[in-house]
Amino acid sequence: SRYRKKKQKRYLLPDIISTVEFNHTGELLATGDKGGRVVIFQREPESKNAPHSQGEYDVYSTFQSHEPEFDYLKSLEIEEKINKIKWLPQQNAAHSLLSTNDKTIKLWKITERDKRPEGYNLKDEEGKLKDLSTVTSLQVPVLKPMDLMVEVSPRRIFANGHTYHINSISVNSDCETYMSADDLRINLWHLAVTDRSFNIVDIKPANMEDLTEVITASEFHPHHCNLFVYSSSKGSLRLCDMRAAALCDKHSKLFEEPEDPSSRSFFSEIISSVSDVKFSHSGRYMLTRDYLTVKVWDLNMEARPIETYQVHDYLRSKLCSLYENDCIFDKFECAWNGSDSVIMTGAYNNFFRMFDRNSKRDVTLEASRESSKPRAVLKPRRVCMGGKRRRDDISVDSLDFTKKILHTAWHPAENIIAIAATNNLYIFQDKVNSDMH
Amino acid sequence: MLSKGLKRKREEEEEETLGVDAWWLDPGHPAVTQAPPTVASSSLFDLSVLKLHHSLRQSEPDLRHLVLVVNTLRRIQASMAPTVTLPPAPSPPVVPSVTDNLLASSDAMLSASMASLLEDLSHIEGLSQAPQPLADEGPPGRPVGGAPPSLGALDLLGPATGCLLDDGLEGLFEDIDTSMYDSELWVPASEGLKPGPEDGPDKEGAPDLDEAELDYLMDVLVGTQALERPPGPGR
């Protein structure tokens, strides 16, 4: 068995992590949590002075993004949990990100301050007004260096756009607009305008009694600003073109794999529900995650995915129990690596899986404290279903279903991954900058 | 069985009743494709109904969870043999909890629809018509005539959500019952709370609504009365 040398860093965060996202350069990594907080990590520049901490991530900034709110009209509490964070492409010295809870999206600006003006005429060092009689000459204030301070301020609050729970946000490649999706609708916003949004998808039936399908995830195409995709609870993907119509209820393309009659069960629909959809960096493919598999779709082929990978097929015979304890409704995310050659997704027991599309090899790894000495080796794991069992194998019956890895992220260019395991953020990076195999 | 921390309730009872269906709990069973059972056990049906109740009891139900459970329930019900005798359907309690989510009209819709759903369930015993086809998605699937209604379009979610953005203020004073299904007997004659599947919620309001509470809420809306809870940021 092969061992993969990786550096591992673990952060214990104050609350359950609910989303993880690298920015476009990979320099920054943002996490959102159940308590409405955002923690941003920054990659230290590599330096010869401290070779052991080359390119590692350290805490950069922490702020409270959302607070619990009370909707007075509906008499409902709105959770502060951050559902998604998306970075805007950097356009100046400042960084910007969008964070959202169930109902409200916020645009945050992150700036650095490393100089401050000194030598005011009317104020003293502490900012108190000087006694004017003591001022005898004019001086020009000068900028002096100070300790780096990271300032975060809310620039826009996009409220009241959604009746249902927001599950996705996605920034358009035009860098001017973004979309937000809830269970039944998708809205298009302009980043500078908070009092208006355009509804571009509405699948709410005239009679709610007829509701059979909801929107589960959505994303803009990385290059074509008019294209976006949304997934449904029935396992279908709809690619929409905003140029075709103002309301994109009619899809341009419908991606759906027909149900395999031999594996049909009462839970077929639940396990086909897509929990995440991601365009490849190239824009040619889409990656979807449903309960048991990850699938790669070619935008040019609607009939079926071009690749299907089993994440934890040993659960197929356990679906009834997983239905009973609601685990079957867990929503796992998926991710591409920078070159679109490897895909990653989380599973139970703090396991996460990687699939190499070229070699068709796959590996199961574990994010755990036990193997978490700083220079530990990340060991592949195996789940056995009974029968012959190797020494380090885990039996499927001893999997811990409370330890779910729902949120994972891959650095846009390098082999660095961020894994959220409840309160723990694991950052794995190669010791040597090389391909997976 | 599945994990150390998760204990199933009534574990022994379930093992006995499941019987034939144990194949999907059998850990030794290979994970490759199996021919699914054509008839669901009644306990799977009960489990689904329980999940549905639990989901609807939330002040803001998770729509995805709700829709998936409902669709699964449809499949199960469709596969059940006509002669299956269901246990008596649990009934919603009578008294609406006035202060609970009075202004959330989505719950009114849900409670109204659930009432009819349970009505349907109680009629299933002695069902004489063929089960609905599984792919019963659209409204036309509803059977006509005097035959006991099967679970066609599940009357789960009413039309209005009551959001000002959406449907105006019409749903604001719908009578909401979120404490339903706490195992009290349904008394249909009271309160006019029992609309049919086609009806909207009872527009005349709930007669047992406390007038003082209604006045209080009116004042809150009009702004003469301050709410106890401070508004959050950004409002």
TrEMBL record, chain A:
Keywords from the named record = Repeat, WD repeat
| Highest taxon of the lineage | Eukaryota
Does the entry feature the keyword Lipoprotein, yes or no?
no
What GO MF annotations does this protein's record show? protein phosphatase regulator activity
A single GO CC term, please? Answer: protein phosphatase type 2A complex
PANTHER family from the xrefs? PROTEIN PHOSPHATASE PP2A REGULATORY SUBUNIT B (PTHR11871)
The similarity comment for this entry is: Belongs to the phosphatase 2A regulatory subunit B family.
Q: What is the protein's given name? A: Serine/threonine-protein phosphatase 2A 55 kDa regulatory subunit B
Question: Gene symbol?
Answer: PPP2R2C
Automatic annotation (TrEMBL), chain B:
GO CC terms for this protein?
Answer: nucleus; sarcoplasm
Composition bias of kind Basic and acidic residues appears in: 196-206
Give the InterPro entries listed for this entry: E2F-SERTA_domain_protein, SERTA_dom
GO biological process: one example: negative regulation of cell growth
Q: Which residues form the SERTA domain?
A: 37-84
Residue numbers spanned by region Disordered: 130-152, 189-210
User: Pfam families this protein is in?
Assistant: SERTA (PF06031)
Listed PANTHER family: CELL DIVISION CYCLE ASSOCIATED PROTEIN 4/SERTA DOMAIN-CONTAINING PROTEIN 2, SERTA DOMAIN-CONTAINING PROTEIN 1
Mind telling me what this protein is named?
SERTA domain containing 1
The source organism is Chinchilla lanigera
